[in-house]
Amino acid sequence: MFSQLPAPMLDPILSLSVAYRNDPRDEKVDLGIGVYKNSAGETPVMQAIKQAQDIVVATQTTKSYVGLAGCEQFNQSMIDLLLTGTSAMDRVSAIQTPGASGALRMLGDLMKVAQPNTTIWISDPSYVNHKPVMEAAGLKVRHYRYFSRDTKQVDVDAMMADLRTAGKDDVVLLHGCCHNPTGADIDFDAWQAITQLSQKNGFTPFVDIAYQGFGDGLEADAKGLRYMADNVEEMLITTSCSKNFGLYRERTGAAIVVANTKQEADNAKGKLMTLARSTYTMPPDHGAALVKTILGSDTLTQVWKQELSQMQKRLVSLRKALCDELKNSHGTSQFDFIQSHKGMFTVLGFSQEQMTQLREEYGIYGVGDGRINIAGLTEKDIPYVANAIVRVA
Ligand code: LMR
Questions:
Q1: Residue range 18-28, pLDDT digits in tens
Q2: Is the shortest distance between the CB of 127 and ligand 1 below 6 Å?
Q3: Is the CB of 107 under 6 A from ligand 1?
């Protein structure tokens, strides 16, 4: 049975963590997988999570099954965080999923059942798992142009030109904020233009928002998504608590469907539950129980929002510190674009060979597509990393 299987390909992101761990050099810096580190280089459990954990341990009376859709209060909280104030609130449904990757796959499977001919358009470049997940769900994948290698910003004209060819059997996958891997986000004008194009040409928007709160804040990061949800008949959304609640290993996410009517949204949810049953049955509970506990308490919500806001502000200051170091110690403003990017990631514009050089010569681990994780930097790494960037450029 297994003799014909090829040797496994390494995951371009997850394999870096293993290589980093095995690297004996003291000066090594892990800018690979999207994990937030504090100034001490640690990824601590957030205070709000710790307090919620105490409450859950003290009050949970059973470990019996929850249900195919996971925790319904958690699902409602995810809908509230993303869609409050929009007309979509009356025609939406959600299931809890094992992380946002689980949500991507469930919505991929849903599209395959509901509209077998679907082509899904993803940005070039995009999160490395988007294409594999959608292809595994049996969908056709196409790319739309997104990032200008010259300006290191979104090439909105090229993007719109490609999206103008998407039609009613198509789904367009957008990043809600903090584009992975580039860090370059579309502005509100582009959100409006894509919404109008969707109304005119009939494609369905799909928004993956795995970093809400890391760009400009919880509300600002959902602004484009909310406008779109308010103005289109149908929309798909995936969200994650990995980053903004620091729940990486707890695999806590949600798949959300906005439909024409509440009945249609509920029908889609029913299908998602059937699909979950034949895949993993139901999601793990712990992470969702913690998020539900936090968002169900005004006090804990305040603690969480404050911590999230501190992380967001620190990302902005790390970007500035890196640009300042490049300018002041190396006299270059070539990388000033880093400061205009949002969230955890930035694409430096380096080739695969240059990323290999960063890793082999300096022990700096970024992803092969040129992505570095700004949230993996500590203040003390900045001179070392800036020097390496300049040497490799
Ligand atoms: C990343 O892009 O680094 C994260 O989203 C981790 C993952 O799941 O690939």
A1: 999 999 999 99
A2: yes
A3: no
Which residue puts its alpha carbon closest to atom 4 of ligand 1?
A: 34
Handedness of CA 14, 20, 21, 23 (dihedral sign): positive
Prediction pTM value: 0.97
Residues 235/229, Cβ–Cβ less than 8 Å: yes
- Residues 117-134 as b/e (b if ≥16 CB within 10 A, e otherwise) read ebbbbbbebbbbbbbebb
14-56 confidence digits (pLDDT tens) = 999 999 999 999 999 999 999 999 999 999 999 999 999 999 9
Helix (H, G, I), strand (E, B) or coil at 209: strand
What is the whole-number distance in angstroms between the Cα of residue 210 and the centre of ligand 1? 9
CA distance 390 to 393: 5
Residue 108: what residue type? G
Give me the residue label for tokens 């940005």. 123
Which atom belonging to ligand 1 lies closest to the Cα atom of 367? 3
Please tell me if the CB atom of residue 33 comes closer than 6 angstroms to any atom of ligand 1.
yes
User: Hey, what are 279's tokens?
Assistant: 């895949």
Minimum CA distance residue for ligand 1 atom 1? 34
